[in-house]
Amino acid sequence: MTLPGIDVDPARGDRSAVRSAAAQFRSRSSVLTDRAGSARGALGAMTGLVGEAPDALRPRIAALVERIDRTAAAAGTVACILDDYATSLDAIALRSVSALSHAHFAYDQIWIRRGEALNAASELITGWALGWDDVIPSWLYLDDHAHLARWSAAIDDFRDARAAVLALQLERDELDRFTAEQLRAVPLLAELAASAPASLTARLAVASLWAGDVDGVSATGLASLGDSDVIRQVWGAMSSDQRDAMIAASPLVIGNLDGVPIRDRVAANRRSIGDEIDHREAQIAALEAKRDAEIANPSSYPGQTPSAIRAAYDARIADHRAVIVIYQGLLTQRVTWIDENRHAHVDTGARVVVFDPRSQAIGTYHGPIDAATGDIPAWVRHVAISVPGTAATMTSFSDDLGADLYALSGRESAVFQWAGGEFPGDLLEATSADYSAALAPKLRDFAAGVAMPDSATLTVLGHSYGGATVGLAEQAGLRADRVLYVASAGMGHGVSGLADFPYTAGVPHYSLMVRNDLVVGFVQGGDAGALHGQSALTAEGVVRLETGRLVDGDPTSPDLEDYSEPGNGFIRQVDVHTTLFTPHSTAMNGIVAVITGGRAEVFAPSEYVFAAGRSVTVDGIDSADYEPHYTRIE
Predict the structure, then answer these.
(1) Quick one: which of 471, 472, 497, 493 has its CA closest to 484?
(2) Is residue 548 within 8 Å of residue 585, measured between CB atoms?
(3) What is residue 500's three-state secondary structure?
C-alpha cells in the first residue's frame, strides 16, 4: 500500500549486485597488478643491455607499466567505494524496514481511530468527505471528544513516522550523490568518461584495453559482458587485426553476438557457414565409406540386401547434400542495395547476421552498410525487424520477404529477417507457447543490439507464430517505435493487451489478417487466456489495417480472400495466410506504410444484410457503399 507523501523506499536497489560489482573490480585489479609485475620484470631483465632495440623498448614498456598500474589502482579504488556503498546501504535498509513498518502501523491507526469516532457519532455525522489528515470539527461533534483527540493524535503520529522515512530518503539521496562523486573522482574513470558508456563494467573493459590488456580479451569474455552497448564499445576499441583474429578464432560466437557491427557479424558467419559445409561434407565422406564397407561385406548384416543398405545410407547422404546446397546458396546469393546517391550495388553473399546450427538460428540483413562503422548508415530513416512463423528453420528459412520489404520500403530503409532460434515445425507444435517464450528474450536482445541511426525509426513485425513471439518480446522489454502483427496467432501467451508492455505500451500498434485465414483465424477473438493471448485484431489500442485487393487500388483485382496462388497446392483459406505479402497488394502496401510512415487503409468492418429470411455477412470491401478510409502513420 502506498502511504501519503511516501512514494519511494530508501532501501531500494540490489545490494548483492553492488557487492558483486565490487568483487569484479577487485579481481580485475589483482590480475592487472600481476601483469604490471610481469612487465616490470621484463624491464628489469633489460638492465645492462645496450643497442637501438633495447633503448627503443625501455620507454614503451615503462609506459605500459604505468598504464597497467593506473588501471589496477582505479579498479581497486572502485571496489573499495562500492564495498563502502553496499555497507552503508545495509544500514539504511535495516532502519528503512523499521521506519516503513512504523509508518504503515501509524497510518492504519488513523483509520481505526477515525472509525471509532464515527461509530460513536450521531447518524447525522459522516466522514466520506474527509481527507486522511482531516478530523471532524469539535463544535460539530456532539459525543465524547476523547475520540477526536485520539483520532488527531494518530494523524500526528503518522506525520512523525513519515518524517522519519523522508529523513532516511534524504540520507539515501546524499549517499548516492556522495558515491557518484567518489566514482567520478577516480582519475582513470574520469579520463575515460567521455569515451566509455556510463556503466562501470563498460568503463573497466575500456580501461583494460586502454592499459594494453588485450591478450586477455577473448570472444567468450566479450560475450560475457552481456550488454550490447558495452560489447560495441569494447569491439570498437580493438584494432582491426585483433577483431579479424577474434573472428577467425571464434566465428560462431562473434557472428551471433549482439553489439558487434553488421559487417563483422556477416564476415564471421561466412566462416561459420563454410565450416558447417565442411563438417557436412566430412559426414558425407564418412557415411559413404561406411556404406561401401557394409555393401562389400553383406554377411555382417544378415537379412539386409546391398540395395537396402545403399538406400538407407543414400537417404542420409541426400539430407546432408540438400543442406549444403542451401548453405552454398547463402554464400553465392546476389544481394542488391542502394546507396545514399541512389546508385544500385550488387554484392555476392547473403548478409547473414545470425547463424547458429546448435540453436537453429538464422537471420539476414538487407540494406546499405556504412563503410566506416560497418553498421547501418546515418542517413537511413526506416529500420525493420521481420519475424517469420511456424516451420521457419535454417533450411526452410528464406529471406525473400526481407528482400521484398527492403525493395518496397525504399533506399532509406534497412530490413532484418530474423529467425533467431527454434520455431515450431508444424501447426500441432504451434499450439505450444514454449517456442515463443524462448524466442522472445532473444528477439528483445537482438533489437537492442542494432545500432540505430539517430533519426531512424524501428518497426518490429511478426507473422503468424512470429506475432506471438513479438508480443512476448514486448512483454520482456523490447523497445521499438512501431509494432505490427501480421496474421498473428496472438499477442503472446498470457498477454492481455498493450498495458502489459513496459516500453512499447504507448507506441503505435497495428494488425492485419485476411478475413478467411484458416491457419490462425480459429484462435482470433481470444483474450489473455487464449492459446497465444489476446488477439491483435481486437486488442484495444491496436489499429487493424485492411488487406484489400491483390493489386491495391484496382477495383478489378480480386480480393485477397478470393485469391489463391496458382499451382501451390493449398486451398484458398490456407493460401491467404501468406499471399498478403504479395508486393503491391493492399496488405503489403499497409505493411510498408507502417515501416516507412505514410498512409495505410484501415479495416473495413463486415456488413450484415438480411435477405431471403436470413442474415448474410458481406465483407466490408464488398459492400455497396464501400469507401476506403486511411490512417496516417507518423
Answers:
(1) 471
(2) yes
(3) helix
Which amino acid is present at 45? A
Q: In angstroms, rounded to a whole number, what is the distance separating the alpha carbons of residues 254 and 272?
A: 10
**Measured distance CA(180)–CA(428) in Å, rounded:** 54
- Residue-wise burial string across 469-505, b where 16 or more C-beta atoms lie within 10 A, e elsewhere: bbbbbbbbbbbbbbbbbbbbbbbbbbbebbebbeebe
What is the residue whose three cell numbers read 532516511? 168
Helix H segments across 121-199?
146-185, 187-192
The amino acid occupying position 515 is R
3-state secondary structure of 37: helix
Would the pLDDT of 28 be above 50?
yes
Query: Taking the C-alpha atoms of 121, 124, 125 and 126 in order, what is their torsion angle to the nearest 10 degrees?
Result: 120
Q: State the Cα–Cα distance between residues 330 and 496, nearest whole angstrom.
A: 40
pLDDT of 74 reads 78
Classify 287 in phi/psi space as left (phi over 0), alpha (psi -120 to 50) or beta. Answer: alpha
For residues 467 and 454, what is the distance between their CA atoms, to the nearest angstrom? 27
CA-to-CA distance for 589 and 408, rounded, in angstroms? 8
Helix (H) or strand (E) holding 511: strand 509-512
Q: Is 182 exposed, middle or buried (0-12, 13-18, 19+ CB in 10 A)?
A: middle
State the cell numbers at 254: 562473434
Distance, in Å, from the CA atom of 225 to the CA atom of 216, rounded to the nearest integer, reads: 14
- Tell me the C-alpha distance between 52 and 55, whole Å: 5
Rg (CA), the chain: 33
Q: Given pLDDT bands bounded at 50, 70 and 90, which one contains residue 39?
A: low
- Taking the C-alpha atoms of residue 482 and residue 509, their distance in angstroms, rounded to an integer, is 6
Cβ atoms of 70 and 189 within 8 Å: the answer is no
Q: What is the Cα–Cα distance from 190 to 389, expressed in whole angstroms? A: 48
467 sits in which H/E element: helix 465-475
pTM > 0.85: yes or no: no
Report pLDDT for 134: 81
- For residue range 406-460, what is the model confidence (pLDDT) as tens digits? 999 999 999 999 999 999 988 888 889 999 999 999 999 999 999 999 999 999 9
CA 245 to chain centre: 28
Residue 321 — very low, low, confident or very high, per pLDDT cuts 50/70/90? very high
DSSP 12: -
CA distance 486 to 564: 18
